[in-house]
Amino acid sequence: MGLIEIEGMEFYAYHGHYEEERYVGNRFLLDIAIESDTGAAELSDRIEDALNYQHVYVLIKDEMEQTRSHLLEHIGRRIIDRLKQEISGIESVRLKIKKMHPPMGGQIQSVSLSLFDDGEN
Predict the structure, then answer these.
(1) Residue 84's closest CA among 108, 60, 61, 49?
(2) Reported pTM
(3) Which CATH class is domain 2-117?
């Protein structure tokens, strides 16, 4: 079993509770950790036997750029569900979404949400 991590993915997207957020947009940072059986790739050294990191990134980018969500929770669930639907061999997923400088009436660097999916959901 292996843990594949992609950290510091950055997107400009149009998610948020307030209409202005969905119009103006904001920066989002994402980290993901995917637990998967890496045994075949360890032995073969072939991309066909591995969980393709590029494919993971492309799916996340697509979810961030499409439907505008009101909540980080909704974005996160959409991403996890899509990954599990389109990529085989995922045992569990840990996803962290960070919204930079949220409009909360003060100087705030970020708010974040971490979701965990152990394959039971």
Answers:
(1) 60
(2) 0.92
(3) alpha beta
- CB-CB contact of 79 with 95 (8 Å): yes
| Per-residue pLDDT reduced to its tens digit, 27-42 | 999 999 999 999 999 9
Largest Cα span, the chain? 54
Q: Where are the domains of the chain?
A: 2-117
- Measured CA to CA, the distance from residue 43 to residue 40 in angstroms comes to 5
Contacts with 94 (C-beta within 8 Å, 6 or more apart), sequence order:
32, 33, 114, 115, 116, 117
